[in-house]
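Annex B. Sample input.
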Amino acid sequence: MVKKSRGIGPILVLLLSITAVTGCGKPEKTAPAYYIQVEKKIRTDFKGSFRRNFNDLNDAHMQEAVAVGIKPVGSSEELERLQAAGKIEKVGTCEYYKVDSLTHSHPYLVPEAKGLLDTIGRMFNDSLRSRGGGNYRIIVTSLLRLRNDIKRLRRYNVNAVENSAHSYGTTFDITYRRYDRTDRQYVISDRQLRLLLSEILRNLKKQGACYVKYEMKQGCYHITVRDR
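Annex B, continued. Sample output.
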């Protein structure tokens, strides 16, 4: 059954039939359980072109990466030593974001970059809740890259450069094409969630917190923390 409610889109009522086994081994039907999914629309104030709003060049990313980050490393053992020394921090799935399956990077960032990622994830989650949109998490698709990671990536990714800001632990990618839904009730389109993420990144960029590049082919925002 589909009902329409002003301002929130269609409400889909789903019925789940629950059965229980009696002492004689026959299934016994109980009353159906209900839960409601709301297709929700949220308000954002992001307008304009994604490309024009997020067009920071690689040179700008690299300048900050060299200033803030570690020196490029070549092995997992070096990463572990840097973590033990407090130079980098491990990044894992948490309340505010999900770390995707990493094929060409490792789950580490310098503390400043991890702090920025935490801020983006928290602002996204808080903004969504304050607008009645439930719980979604952003998805991180790339973090710190070793030298060999970049060599392998350049074989098929034209945007991967030999001297990458990802090598310094200052830079991460967040996909704008998909989001991790942790709330069964609210369904929000990827388009609206992209606008909300873009609003947050635009505001942080204006505050001088980061450089952001909109990467169309990779479907992500390429983000580098700035030294403020």
